[in-house]
Amino acid sequence: MMVCDDKRSEDEKYEVYLAERAKLIQLQAEETHKFDKAILTLAGGAFGFSLAFIKEFVPYVRAGTYFWLLAAWICFGLSLLSTMISFLTSQRACRTQIEIMEKDFFDDKKPDILKNKPARWTSGLNISSVAFFIVGVSLLIVFVAVNVPH
Question: What pTM did the predictor assign?
Answer without folding.
Answer: 0.74
